[in-house]
Amino acid sequence: MTRESCRPPMAFRVLSLLLLAGTLTTLSGCRSSQPRPEGLSLDQAFFTEKLAEIDQVIDAAIADKKCPGGVLWIEREGAVYSRALGRRAVVPEPEPMTLDTIFDLASLTKVMACTPAVMLLVEEGRLDLDAPVAKYLPAFAAHGKDAITLRQLLTHTSGLRPDVSLKPDWEGFEAALRLACAEQLRAQPDERFIYSDTGPIVLAAIVQGVSGVPFDAFLARRVYGPLGMVDTGFNPPAGKRGRIAPTTIENGAPVRGVVHDPRARRMNGVAGHAGLFASAADVARYARMMLHQGELDGVRIFQPGTVQLMTGIRTPAPIPQRRGLGWDIDSGYAGQRGALFPVGGYGHTGWTGTSLWIDPFSRTFVIFLSNRNHPDESGSVLALRRQIGTLAAEAVRDFNFAHVPGALPRSDSASQSSAARDAETVEVLNGIDVLVKQAFAPLKGRRVGLITNHTGHDRFRNPTIDLLHGAKEVELKALFSPEHGIRGTVDAHVADGTDAQTGLPVYSLYDSTRSPQPQELAGLDALVFDIQDIGCRFYTYISTMGLAMEAAAAANLDFFVLDRVNP
User: The pTM is what?
Assistant: First the structure.
């Protein structure tokens, strides 16, 4: 994506919007390059009666002893629906759940601690995702693991088994790391998906070694502190114990403020796979930052391209489970997405009963935090998460989940063919599809003239004219017609006129003048060009684009090219 200063006579600004999936330097997986202004009321963002149904299904799950209680947080464009339901604790004495309850996040640690720590160092050039792990941790090369990369650890495609053994007894961060380095492969790298806690354990050690800062301190300094996540961290202080949701009972008392995961506990509570504690409000701040492409309240944590790299599909084509870097996109673990949120969002869950789903298409995120394993491990929120996800999508106003441009097709991760996965991995999006996925952000607030014809349409055959005309973010003011007219039906010279479908003026670029005239450009902020090129030079479309660029440069207008693949 390039942008140059617009200065006559032939300097111009071109925003190229051809998207090739899978690279950081493109807009891969881009849903919105910048946040839209927030400020919707609850009634504008949601059907409140549907939100009330979510309360009811959570209350029913509590009554059925699936969990003692939970905190729900649903947010869209500044509208927040938050509820504390049930109890924080049931033994030794009942305690009501509160919105500021702090939870053991379990595996949400992977995407709220491990992934961000790694990616901050990737941004700085201190880590290379495609470098062997052994480059940073030489002992890891043992037993044929020398080729495993950081990327494979993040996508759970390294071939490592799910956990390091708890026997014989061991204690400490270094002991866990020695066990991880001694592991043998259960599959070849990039052969299959095996959800593994071992990868994040290793990655946390690499972050610590490369940064020279303890893992927990690194995150507090670089992520949680800047974002104002005041209740997020490892090994929460004693002063916050009263607000922490307990998990299981040990030695006759509830475990409170001590990580539930046995391996993280042996690592003194600090690990890449588990150990993080946070409140729903803090998880919401993190989700908001992700949804806003790495920035929140003027504080930038990640560059937008880094967010896209994390949240796009990064698993190899033959593997049916679709995962990002740490984040789940479409696998058997993504039940919290529910039945309606489109494939292309991202999230994660935690063993203790925590979950997060971020839908960049509707700009909604759903958080449900519970301590389903209190007072014992008999609770389960698997079905409840799915219900919450489905109802949350049903609650979203003015958004058609049946037709979401840019969403991926749903699939059965257990049986999806490698051929189909390969087709999705090498997917190429034309410029208009990228623009739609960005919610027209590059054109937001601009008065636009569109140069197009019948070849200008999105992947679903919706004409670019109609898409821009219907976009509330853009003011489409005029159409410019190339050879054969904007609908491709004119054989001779094209005359000026009015488009019958939109009522917009149509200025000819194929009559006595072949470029936009100054009076036609008056009142515009930008020109957008969307025409399919033809691989032979007796058509005039490429010349039309060049002349229009010159006119835009002379008028000091931005010029946006919605790239298309030459067939």
Answer: 0.69
